[in-house]
Design goal:
The structure holds 2 protein chains of 2 kinds.
Chain A (H helix, E strand, L loop, with lengths): L3 E3 L4 E4 L4 E7 L6 E7 L6 E6 L3 E5 L2 E6 L4 E6 L8 E8 L7 E2 L3 E6 L1
Parallel strand pairs in A: 2-11
Antiparallel strand pairs in A: 1-3, 3-8, 4-5, 4-9, 6-7, 7-8, 9-10, 9-11
Chain B lengths: L3 E4 L2 E4 L5 E7 L5 E7 L5 E8 L2 E5 L6 E7 L2 E6 L8 E8 L6 E3 L3 E5 L1
The chains are: A mainly beta, B mainly beta.
Amino acid sequence: QKEVEQNSGPLSVPEGAIASLNCTYSDRGSQSFFWYRQYSGKSPELIMSIYSNGDKEDGRFTAQLNKASQYVSLLIRDSQPSDSATYLCAVNPDGANNLFFGTGTRLTVIP
Amino acid sequence: DTAVSQTPKYLVTQMGNDKSIKCEQNLGHDTMYWYKQDSKKFLKIMFSYNNKELIINETVPNRFSPKSPDKAHLNLHINSLELGDSAVYFCASSGRPHNEQFFGPGTRLTVL
């Protein structure tokens, strides 16, 4: 069983719409959750972190965490063509020194 | 003021050669990592060092040998390069308590 699962997409949304990216994880003791954005040919860039149940908002980005369902999501409001990238979900299992990454969801925002 | 830096950015070499990639971080982190990202874009952990000590060593051929002279540096040496080693290699570092990782710009290795 994969530690972190994401829908690989591709996901296409029109400009101005809400993009919804989803991720599930298997380790129930996980404490820290992250979303990374990776543009083609570039390195992963940390855009959101969330540690407790509920929503966390940062500009157009909202991360949502539900530990009971082992589910974390990223919402991008007012999507822009510049948001087109691969989004990686990462989870830090309890006591672990590393992160487990999902395979990424490729998002395309259509002008 | 680069946080995590890697050299070289591109590396093109022949099969059978030995090459090294260097990584440095100025974030004061204790933990550093090497990842391999292949053509399918999956990010796979290779090694992790905490305070110069190896703590993660995934199933990687022993042709790959990491070296950490101090906690700000983690280098990767690859012996007898093979075609399948062609990939992008990322260095990363992380700090406590949440372990958020910050990545270097990557080294694109092409083995001919």
